[in-house]
Amino acid sequence: MTWQVFGLIVLSVSISALAQIVLKLGVSTPLDPLVRNAGRLTQAWAVISNGYVLLGFLLYGLGALVWLAVLSRVDVSQAYPFVGLGFILTLVLGALVLGEAVGPTRWAGALLVMAGIACLARS
């Protein structure tokens, strides 16, 4: 795998992790009281049309396009294990951007995921 392909993998995974954070911001935005008292379809539309949710969907689409560039260059079995980096990035971004509490057990799990990715990358 070339450094260029590895860079595309990191870019794709980073965009997808950022999409998770933006989507969380969108669905965490309180609904207007009028919408809250409306029907489920109105509530669903309010969530889906939220700017953060729309941006999250856009980021996912962009991440998928970058991933297609990755798949056109390397075997999927070689590239896909690196998707696990998304768990790590999402954990870090959740803590930094959303203020989520990350305890020792989660950090230990993140280290195990990183170790697994390293093992797969060397094989």
User: Hey, roughly how much beta strand do the residues contain?
Assistant: under 5%
Task: Classify the secondary structure makeup into a structural class.
Answer: mainly alpha
pLDDT < 50 stretches: none
How is the main sheet built?
A: none
Number of domain units: 1
Percent in helix: over 70%
N-to-C terminal Cα separation, in Å? Answer: 12 Å
Instruction: Report the total helices.
Output: 7
- Rg is 17 Å
User: What series of H and E elements makes up the topology?
Assistant: HHHHHHH
Instruction: Tell me, briefly, the overall form.
Output: flat
Overall average pLDDT: 90
Kindly state the number of beta strands. 0
GO molecular function: transmembrane transporter activity
Protein name: EamA-like transporter family protein
InterPro entries: EamA_dom, EmrE-like, Small_drug/metabolite_transptr
Membrane topology: Multi-pass membrane protein
Give a nutshell description of this structure.
Helices cover 78% and strands 0% of the residues.
Can you offer a commentary on this structure?
Pfam families: EamA. The protein is an all-alpha fold and 123 residues long. It has one domain (3-122). It has helices at 3-27, 33-36, 40-48, 51-71, 76-79, 85-98, 104-122. The longest helix has 25 residues, at 3-27. It starts with a helix and ends with a helix. 15% of the residues are buried. The model has no long low-confidence stretch (mean pLDDT 90).
